[in-house]
Specification:
The structure is a single chain. The chain has a single domain, classed as Alpha/Beta hydrolase fold, catalytic domain (Rossmann fold, 3-Layer(aba) Sandwich). Helix content is about 45%, strand content about 15%. Strands 1-2-4-3-5-6-7-8 form an eight-stranded mixed β-sheet, sandwiched between helices. It comes from Tsukamurella tyrosinosolvens. Belongs to the 'GDXG' lipolytic enzyme family.
Length: about 325
C-alpha cells in the first residue's frame, strides 16, 4: 500500500553510514573509475561495472511491472506495485555521461519512483556515445517526449525527471520548448544534474571536497565521447536559462559529497535568477544519484517521498487556482 506519511525533512548533517559509504566508494569505485581507459573495451568495462553496482545497490519492489517499447522509440514502461496507467505519467531520462547506462540499469529507480508517486514511469532508452555522438541522445529524448504526446498524454499531465547527464538533456529539451513556445510538463525533477559539460564547476567543487565516486577529469573524458568535435559554447551544450520564466517548476536534489552539487546550485540560481521556480535540496554526505542506491543510502526512499510531496503540492496549488478562477 502506498504510504501517505509526509516525507521527512532533508537532514542537517551527514550520518556515520553515509560517511563510511563515501570512504569505501572512494577507495573502490573512485580508484577504479580513474583507471578505465576511454576506448571501446574500457567503455564495455565501465558499462558492466555501473550496471553491476546499480543492480547490487538498487532495490526493485516486488510486484513491479515492466513493458518494453521498441518502436518508434525505445524505452520501458515501469509501474510500481499497484500502479496503473492513467491520465498522468512520468517521463524519465537516465544519466551516466551519455555513454554508460540504459533503461534497464535504471529500472529499480524508476520502479521506486513510480511506487512513491503512484504514477507510471516511461524510461527512454536513448542511444549512447561514443557509438552515437551529439546530438543523438538529445534527439532521442525529444522523440520520446513527442511519442508520449501521441499516446494521449497532454504535456501538462506529464512530469519529466532524470539524473546526471539526463538533467542536461532535460534542460535542453525544455529550453527548446520555451524557444518554440511549446507546452511544458507540469514539473521537472532532477537528481544530481550535470549542467556544465566543461566540468569547471565540478572541478571547483572538487577542490573543496573530492567526489568519492569519480574525478572531474575522468567524468569529463566520458562526456567528451558524446561532445567530441563540438564547440563547448554550442547553445545546445552551454545552456542559457534566460527563458526560465517559461519553464515548469523544478525540484533539484543532489548529494553533499558529490562534485555535481555545484551544478545543482548553479542551476537553481540560474532558474530563480531568470524568473523560474526552483526548489533545491542538497543532502549532506550523500553521493551522486543516491536515490538509485537504497541499499547504500537509506535516505534514497525519503528523497523519493519528497518528490511525491513536491508534486502533490503543485497539484494542490493548481486545484486552488482553478477553484478561484471558477
Amino acid at each position: 500500500m502506498r504510504t501517505t506519511t509526509p516525507a521527512p525533512p532533508v537532514p542537517s548533517d551527514s550520518t556515520t553510514r553515509s560517511d563510511v559509504a563515501a570512504v569505501l566508494t572512494r577507495y573502490g569505485l573512485g580508484v577504479t573509475s580513474g583507471l578505465i581507459p576511454m576506448n571501446a573495451p574500457g567503455i564495455r568495462v565501465a558499462r558492466g561495472l555501473v550496471a553491476a553496482i546499480m543492480g547490487a545497490l538498487g532495490s526493485t519492489p516486488r510486484g513491479t511491472a515492466v513493458t518494453g517499447v521498441r518502436a518508434p522509440v525505445r524505452g520501458d514502461w515501469v509501474l510500481g506495485p499497484g500502479v496503473t496507467y492513467g491520465r498522468r505519467a512520468i517521463y524519465y531520462v537516465h544519466g551516466s555521461a551519455y555513454a554508460i547506462c540504459s533503461a534497464r540499469t535504471h529500472r529499480s529507480l524508476a520502479a521506486r519512483l513510480s511506487a512513491a508517486t503512484g504514477l507510471p514511469v516511461f524510461v527512454v532508452d536513448y542511444r549512447l556515445a561514443p557509438e552515437h555522438p551529439f546530438p543523438t541522445a538529445a534527439g532521442d529524448v525529444a522523440a520520446g517526449w513527442d511519442w508520449l504526446l501521441t499516446q494521449g498524454y497532454a504535456a501538462e499531465d506529464l512530469v519529466i525527471a532524470g539524473d546526471s547527464a539526463g538533467g542536461h538533456l532535460i534542460c535542453d529539451l525544455l529550453l527548446q520548448h520555451a524557444a518554440a513556445d511549446r507546452p511544458q510538463p507540469a514539473a521537472a525533477v532532477l537528481f544530481s544534474p550535470l549542467i556544465d559539460l566543461t566540468f569547471a564547476l565540478a572541478a571547483q567543487q572538487e577542490r573543496v571536497r573530492r567526489d568519492p565516486a569519480i574525478s572531474a577529469a575522468a567524468a569529463k573524458r566520458l562526456v567528451d565521447l558524446y561532445t567530441a568535435g563540438i564547440d563547448p559554447a554550442h547553445p545546445r551544450l552551454h545552456l542559457d536559462f534566460w527563458r526560465s520564466d517559461r519553464l515548469p517548476p523544478f525540484l533539484i536534489q543532489a548529494g553533499g559529497a558529490e562534485m555535481l552539487s555545484a551544478d545543482a546550485r548553479y542551476l537553481d540560481a540560474e532558474l530563480r535568477g531568470h524568473g523560474g521556480a526552483s526548489t533545491l535540496e542538497v543532502w549532506p554526505g550523500l553521493m551522486h544519484v543516491f536515490q538509485a542506491l537504497p541499499r547504500l543510502a537509506p535516505e534514497a526512499d525519503a528523497a523519493l517521498l519528497r518528490v511525491r510531496d513536491f508534486l502533490a503540492a503543485l497539484d494542490s496549488a493548481a486545484a486552488h487556482t482553478d477553484s478561484e478562477a471558477s
